[in-house]
Amino acid sequence: MGRYLNPILPGCHPDPSVCRVGAEFYLVTSTFEYLPGLPIHVSTNLVDWAPLGHAIERPGQLDLAGLPGSCGLFAPTIRHDGERFFVVCTVVGPDDGSWGGRTGHFVVTAVEAAGPWSDPVWIDGVGGFDPSLTFDDGRVWLTGTQPAPNPQWPGQTDVWLVELDADSLQPVSTPIVLWQGALVGAVWAEGPHLVPRPGGGWMLVAAEGGTARDHAVCVAYADQITGPYRGDPANPRLTHRDLGEQAPIASVGHADLVDDTSGRTWATVLATRPVDGRDGLLGRQTYLVPVDWQDRRPVFATGDGRVHFVNDGPGLPDQAPRQTVFDDDFGGAGDGAGLDGAWNGVGRHPSSFARRDARPGHVRLSAGAEPGSLTAQSFLGRRLPAENVDITAVVEVPADSSGVRGGLLLRTSEQAFLEVSVDDSGAVLSRSARAGEVTALAEAPGLAGRRVELGIEVRGLSAHITIDGATLAEADLSALVPDPARGFVGVWVGPFAVGTGGGYLDVDRVTLTVHPEPRPA
């Protein structure tokens, strides 16, 4: 019996979906406004995961330009039909309909999970979000959720099912409603998956209660895939909603099930890691729990029904040590090659503003829009990997790059961020945004035309900001905590450049050093 740590995917990896092909497991998570999108990870043991690439992997494959934070790519599902991988997902726009891009469900496919992935095939005639595919004896089914058209209570949600043509992936039947929640008054049934039930029939696994502290996993059973579905009398089958504000792990839900090669069942779920009684900066991460079957009913996290940081996994090896230093010097043999796959852009692919062939050992960021803008930002970001991290970026604004400001950014959205930057005059600036209101924290002059090391030391919800190792400012990061009602994305961190007229920022190195902390079991 091996020991493993949760989360199995640190940093913002929400809405996990998992499948197994042969001896390998494949996992996909949401990315909302970031591109490349929908990262694919692979594992042979469920506890050690390696990045393979992204289902939305290249410029032109999908347009997310101009989307507000926490819109975009919602809750994907990954499945395999025996020949190809399928990832189904939804592009969700802002509630006010102000975004002009295409929204709705789409499918991308690949023979190998590492890609290449196809262009999206859009599924017409069904609405809502959180789609999932089921392959059954040559037939293809799509399930998803949408607000009930005539709700009996606020937040009432329908889980629906429709059959798709196996070739065109378009509906060939009228959607039917399978589920409206475990109880009268239940809200936001979402993340539905249909899985075969031991001994025959089907089980619907769905999240309920919203994706914040009342999140939960509920199940229902049917003899036929089309229903009728009967809720488990002991719903919810997994939740931390009853543990209160000081629970070390919260918001548990959005489960997907997979069997290992020995026939044991496991569930990936999302959860948050509160700091001082409120959600931290990382947002929703991917956790793993065992699932037993008793009388054909799933028992999640057998023994106490809780998700833990430290776990003994039956049939699993000891988890490999976690990576604690992420260091990119943008050099070596790949000066003209692509970036590390962990780097993302906001609404556009990094290749549209980041170059590695302009200056050896550097990445050059073409200056873009302000961090608070919905237009084309030049932010090269990656997930904040832990609650306690030292981040440094060695940057240079060339003296001939007029009107440019750039440096290091912690970003939750265009409404909430923290920056430390240097401009073309050499002035260093630190500022933060809370609900879109920007406040200057500190300034320092006299650094024109030379390399500068900018640093942000993150400790929970506080930050220590440095310039060439000297203290510049202290900052409260509580404004960057994702809003539980709509803030689906945790913090990304990395270099950025602002300006017009062809200006740019050269980045020599970005380093993230994780400081692990003791955690309760």
Terminal CA distance reads 16 Å
At CATH level 2, the architecture of the largest domain is 5 Propeller
Number of strands: 42
Using only CA atoms, what is the Rg? 23 Å
CATH top-level class of the largest domain = Mainly Beta
The poorly predicted ranges are none
Estimate the strand proportion. over 45%
Count of discrete alpha- or pi-helical segments spanning 4 or more residues: 0
CATH superfamily of the largest domain: Glycosyl hydrolase domain, family 43
Structural class: mainly beta
Using the alpha-carbon principal axes, give the shape: globular
Task: Provide the residue-averaged pLDDT.
Answer: 94
Overall tally of structural domains: 2
State the CATH topology of the largest domain. Answer: Tachylectin-2, Chain A
Helix content: under 10%
Main β-sheet description: 8 strands, antiparallel
List keywords for this structure.
Jelly Rolls; Tachylectin-2, Chain A; 521 residues; seven-stranded antiparallel β-sheet; 42 strands; globular; single chain; mainly beta; eight-stranded antiparallel β-sheet
